[in-house]
Design brief:
Layout lengths: L1 E6 L4 E9 L2 E10 L4 H17 L5 E2 L10 H5 L1
Antiparallel strand pairs: 1-2, 2-3, 3-4
Length: about 80
């Protein structure tokens, strides 16, 4: 699980994402004013889990394919 906090020009927001295997779930939480460390910790402990569990949509991610190498170059 990862929490990224950023300022979007009007509010301080946090993006919470979780990846398990090839699944990715993410949600956004608006803090409003600039959050302090204790506020972020309280959010992460109490509200992050239920908020992420409420996300119904998931994205399946595929691993990146290895770069194709020209067979002539490989022979060199």
């Amino acid at each position: 699980m990862q929490l990224i906090i950023y300022y979007d020009g009007q509010y301080w927001a946090g993006v919470l994402d979780e990846s398990a295997g090839s699944r990715l779930r993410a949600c956004r939480h608006i803090f409003g004013t600039e959050p302090h460390n204790d506020e972020v910790l309280k959010f992460a402990v109490t509200r992050a889990g239920p908020l992420l569990a409420a996300v119904r949509a998931e994205v399946n991610t595929k691993p990146l394919l290895e770069r194709w190498i020209n067979p002539k170059r490989m022979l060199r």
